[in-house]
Leucine-rich repeat-containing protein 41 (Scytalopus superciliaris), 740 residues
Amino acid sequence: ALPGHLLRGLLPLLTVFRLERAEGAARRAGLSTQPIWRQLWDDVMKTRPPHSENITCWRKKFLETFFSNVLHGVLDVSSDWRLNDHHFSPLLHSSPHVSQLTLCNMLQGAVELAAEHNHKVLENLAGSLRILKFRHLLSSDQSIRRALVLLLHRLIHHGSVSQVSLYSWPVPDTVLLVLILSMSAGFWRSGNALAYRGSLCSLCREEDKAPSQESVQERAERGCAAEREGSNGGNQKGFPEEADAHLNSVLSDPSSPQAYGEASSKGPCDHTSSQEGSSPHCGSGQLSCHHVLRKTRRWLKPAVGRKRRCLRRSRGPCADPEDLYDFVFTVAREDNSRLLDKSSIEEGENTENWTSFSPGSPCTGHAGCKKRGGPAGIFCPKAARCFRSVSTLELFSIPLTGETCRTLSNLLSSWVSLENLVLSYNGLDANICCILSGLRALSRHPDCHLRVLRVSDVFSHMPCMELVRCILSAFPRLHTLSVSFDLKNQLEGNRPEGNPSCSEVEIPESCLEQLEIRFPREPLHTTLLLPVLKASKSLQQLSLDSATLPCSQELGLLLEALKECTPNLKKLSFHDVNLAEHQKEVLLLLQDPVLQEITFSFCRLFESSTAEFLPEIINTMKRNSSLKSLKLPGNRLGNHRLVALADIFSEDSSSSLCQLDVSSNCIKPDGLLEFTKKLEGHIQQRGGQIQFTHLRLFQNWLDQDAETAQEALRRLKAVCSVVNDSWDSSQAFADYISVM
């Protein structure tokens, strides 16, 4: 135990290994190691991390980035003496600090982590990792996919990963993509059959020890009895063993009618509807209890200690037992596409807690979800055991084909742990209807947790408001819905046949709290938005982007609808909506006694305004004590309007404004300095009593006079928190002139 002054002098001289071990002693001595870790970052990483102002722990930031760089071979530990310690194992000692990890290209990182010598590293990650990202993936061979299987099984099924994100995969490998999606959803081979580093997964084996004490017949009979109780209205737990008997038949021959029970006429995306509480195994069109019981003696073989035998010898030789990923893919036949939904498994819940399988609802035969046969790639949940699944799935710039959309729809139909779903630039087009089918089935699960859905793409298959109504009618329990499109699909007659227009669908009362719509330059018709608002009494945030107003009265109608239908609305945002001719409505919004945040972003507020408009805004703001945040980026305020806005905080003002955003408003250093001086005068008059705390100044012309800008920023920072950037205005000046 060194004295504090000695320890303070010693800490900068320690290697990373010693510094990490001295963390506890430094804390007890009241010393912070944050400056040392920050210096380590500057010396070793030699880059400025994004959003550095938000980093609260440089120790974690350094070790997490260090782990990733070493894993991907972009950092040589011999490059700095503080990293070169024979006691220090780079991956092992930094892995407990890794909460998010990105795997790229050929998945070299996955291969390295799945290697036997990194077993302890993987165990550490299973406890610390929360976010797993894939970026710029390429096609991979069987050995790489096998390593990925081991990694995902440990980190998701037996770990703590709660979010899986995929980015920028222009030509996705269908096998690899479906593998990641299905394992993220918790579907994979039964623990009794999953090889893990050449042997059985020890965690799966431990889970299966207790059930293995019973006879196969007793398990099947008990499972069917529980199902019969469930069909009478009970909410009993089921057991995986009965399903395993069925799964074995599917693994052996997915195309056999016996494996699926009676033939189904539905397509591969169908989620067959049933009466609430009906037994999935004993119901019509499903594998009967007697069928399971009759086959279990012959099919269900203990897997521990020996390889699975060929289950249907008449079908030919067994598949290679090393092909762990092959079972995911079944051939989509016309007569065997009925699906079973997986059980409800809470995040982190022991996989011994199984609920009964239950059918979903049918896909209504949309263009992107038609029945097809032949091609592989359709995932069948029947052929997998349910493990722990993630709660967030994000797909950015990943083109999804019709086959992949049906696979994703099938997974979504029973993904009860999923809380957040982001589908961004996936080229869905008509296949959005298939995704909606899966979500509709998911919404019927009482244990469904999905609350956030974000969909964005280049082309919209249907008008934005129509899609919003479709989604809310299928999933009224959403709390956040974001729909965003760049361009309107110009192809006429592209609406799926046999599907009633979503504008005619009745919207049940929803739980929606946040709604964001980015129109592809579509007109905003309040009559179409009104049913959504009426069904969303809990709406607190509304964002309308890139909409056009078809007539001068439209915005007034919208404000009346908001006042009538959304009494709890706190935040309202307009972006790229031309409000130059709607000064009256803008003032009405600024008078609203309920709104706490208003955004007019690139709305051309002052393009054709009268001289009285700005003073009216200021006087309205001075009388409004409920508004906390006003965002005016991209409205060409200029110096004189910015200086005038300082009067919002005058001595006679009752404004409670805390945040002001004047980014992208052609503000120059002298104007900012004059605004600062005027603001200081108002604060002095009010005896220092002011609630103003945040000012955003991104992309203004502050580089034209660096000395004046620095003085203005220095004085402003004594009053409030200022966020700005180093923006080169000369690069953007030509663009600004071109759009004036």
About this structure: Confidence is low (pLDDT under 50) at residues 190-199, 212-379, 492-500. The first strand starts at residue 100 and ends at 104. The radius of gyration is 30 Å. Residues 441-489+509-739 form a domain with the Leucine-rich repeat, LRR (right-handed beta-alpha superhelix) fold (CATH 3.80.10.10).
